[in-house]
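Contributing new complexes? Match this layout with uridine-diphosphate-N-acetylglucosamine.
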Amino acid sequence: MSTIHIGGYRRLCGQIPIQGSKNGVLPMMAASVLSRDTTVLTNVPAIQDVFCMMGILKFMGCRCTLAGGELTISPADMNRTDLPEEQVRRMRSSIVLLGAMLGRFGEASTSYPGGCSIGKRPIDFHLNALRALGAEVQAEDCRILARATALKGAELTFPYPSVGATENALLAAVLAEGTTVIRGAAREPEIRELCLFLQAMGGKVEGGGTDTIVVEGQRSLHGCRFFVDGDRIVAGTYLIAAMAGRGEVELSGVNPGQLSAVLRTLEETGAQIISTENGVALKMKGRPKAISVETGPYPGFPTDLQSPLMALMCLASGDSLIRETVFEGRYETAAELCRLGARIRLTEGGALVRGVPFLTGGAAAARDLRGGAALVAAGLAAEGETTISDCFHIERGYEDICRDLRKAGADIRWLERDAKENEN
Ligand code: UD1
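Output block (do not edit by hand):
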């Protein structure tokens, strides 16, 4: 049980600091096992996915502590190469541990990974990349077993710029013998950051953030201290929430350069945006203009902000078409938005959204992480009270969405959590 209650519409106005990036820190945590030394990551968000990855690393014998945004990982005493089934099923990005474990121990076994139910999410690119680097990979029923006596550099070409598969290939290649060239690599900022992190560990990696990454395998890596960037998706969510409520917010701790496609789209719908050195300021007057958007790999419009944008378009003047091209199942939130008065029709070409002047409060359920955040944005702009159930999805990626949005004046709280705090 995890429920958010929104008291009704309030114009958002204020400053919100942005937490560290979920998709940035998770592969770095996996990469930390590539050396025996201790690694310290700073600006780490206290979110369920980070706790889950810590649980996996602890199960395998790492010492991990998180305090005040500083995560210390000591992998010297790792004594297992099998990943714990229960946690792996809860989090898809656990799969990148496969590449790292192969690099360090030449062996890893895991069950199929979980994560949000947003489409098919196969892992064939991951497994094929590891095979090309010399690993023997058996994938049977629900288990994957990977072994390599010696990983060898290779030329890899991905048919689609998969973020996770690029990360897995990188983690396996940094300790492989010889040179690896990854073509068709994902260009997300999180990949660039992972490459910088690997360089800080002593890895030789060039081209992170472009579609061709070249890795010169090293004999060993060492520990390091590394600052995790602000979360561009959390930032995008809060900008959209402010727009839905015709508000004015200033976000700090996020790189506006990583939000280019998002900021462009939000400007097209009517927001006034100023990029600052360490963040972004947004002001919204009146109803958003309806626009049609298609998601795509970076630098395209991120699939992770598709549901929040759909929530915004529910309030637009006119019709918009939102087309998801990355995860085909990612329209589940449409039905939940309709419970709050939205008018959305799913067609073969995408979600057709007919803007309405106002949404009405009601009860809805988070279907996945970003879909849950989209419902929060909708609820904040709706007339009347809204309750959103199954918000454990939101807690996977947002440190405390209620705390953050209250900073801008929102009437929003966690039902169970706040009730417990009042008891104590
Ligand atoms: C990562 C992000 C997620 C984001 C997504 C796309 C993390 C922890 N998660 O997920 O928030 O929404 O990138 O930006 O960083 N595919 C295959 N075979 C594979 C791998 C992927 O067909 O082996 C397909 C997927 O089904 C999907 C597309 O490629 O259609 C993109 O997936 P991918 O980039 O791998 O997403 P994730 O790494 O899972």
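Reviewers usually confirm one structural detail per submission. For this one: The mean pLDDT is 94.
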